[in-house]
Amino acid sequence: MENSGAEKSKYPIGFYIGCLTYSFERFAFYGTKPLLVLYLTAAVANGGLAIPKAQAAIIAANFTAYTYIAPLIGGYICDKWLGARYAVTLGCIIMGIGYLMGWKSSNPAVVNMVDPAYGLYASYIRSLGVKNMASINMMIYIVSIGTGLFKGNLAGLMGRMIEDDSKMDAAFSIQYSFVNIGAFFGSAIMGVAYMQFFKKGLMLGFREVFLFCAVLMFIGGVAFTASYKLLHGQGRLPFKYLTDAKGNVIGEAEKNSGSKSSENKGVKLTKKEINGVIAIIFVSFVSIIFWTFYEQQSSALTLYAADNVDMTIGAIKLSPVHVFTTWNGLLCIFMSLGAAKLWATLAKRPKGDLTMFQKVTIAFAFLGLAYTVLIFMELARGGGSNKASVLWLLFFGILLTTGEICFSPLGNSFVNKVAPKKYLSLLLGVWIFATFAANKLTGYVQGVIENYGFMQTMVTFSVVSFITMVILFALSKPLNKLVES
After folding, report:
1. Measuring CA to CA, which residue among 271, 249, 273, 274 is closest to residue 262?
2. Strand 316-317 and strand 312-313: pairing?
3. Rounded to two decimals, what is the model's pTM?
4. Which end of the chain is less enclosed by CB atoms within 10 A, N or C?
5. What is 405-421 written as a DSSP string?
6. Residues 6 or more apart from 129 whose CB is under 8 A from it?
């Protein structure tokens, strides 16, 4: 961060409160996400639920997918009825309750011990066996509901605290670093805790991880609520009410009069607001392509690495999780801060910062380069039983994460800047929904690889990325005029 003599801090304290709250939420989410499928498939003797792998994969995928669609509903609620600060607090509480449901889940051995004296009911419960995952499914649904109230609304609240739009991209790059601090330490610490700290005999500490994450969410919610006075008056009312940088409602006297005419005033969107909505939808659509390709590191590429990559560096043996998830999280922490510095420096130029569309163009350039690296990796491997060096994947991760940093944290910034304020949370939900759609598409790529081959699929990803880059480059000026007109 840069400072000047007249400016002690670029961003208000409340902004950093929001960043820390995101770290708490991501710690809990990524502390749970990597372990959920292991918990579902582990033997009952090891503290798991012994669910078949195919069914467990579907259940675990829902944990991610639903948290990306729920913000659409949560955003609508916050736009219309509920102030963002209260939505975030409520979201933290609900997520904590959700993780408690995972802690209270019971293994199928308990289900099958239902007393036969209960007759048909006992037979029904036993017939469900391991298929009855009520507690785990409730955890998934409840955490998703809490996330819906939390994610987009906190981003909107933080955006309202940034008075100067030229600082928005840098601000949300800093926020993205805090997000990845939570994700990195959540997966790293809980990954050790369930095998060591929470382990009892042969019983691995999966459920204790869920309890820890629940407590963490409650602590995060309390800390955020105690900081209401530091939020610069933001989030007291739904986003449909326009507010200034201090949180004062514009036209508050009219609002308090309760007249229908004042309530309906401004309902019709202006041409500029309509253009903003179009731009957000376009960028969200493009993001589906980006995230579908990006998410292969946690699915198809993980499977490829396990079979075709030498995962050792010297005496250190890595796993695909280390190479993709942990490496990506670590890079994001530092690259986000570097990007914040870069965007802030560019914003001081006479012609200002790069536009959102130019940055997305750069993101697709790095995405294409990342998959080009995999093409060369496969050529160097030579096929058959030969294995490629893991250094290829580490280089791939650097390029992929660079593209991510040029895109992902800026989405929230872009929506905050161009969305009609009365639909801010809803449109933040649209941005998040695109990631949900990409996660659903990701599962089909492995079938494509099995039908057409790894090399052909990687070439396709690289070519499509570069084609998208060229299209965005050609459209960047017209699109930028669209949001500026």
Report:
1. 249
2. antiparallel
3. 0.69
4. C
5. HTTHHHHHHHHHHHS-G
6. 108, 111, 112
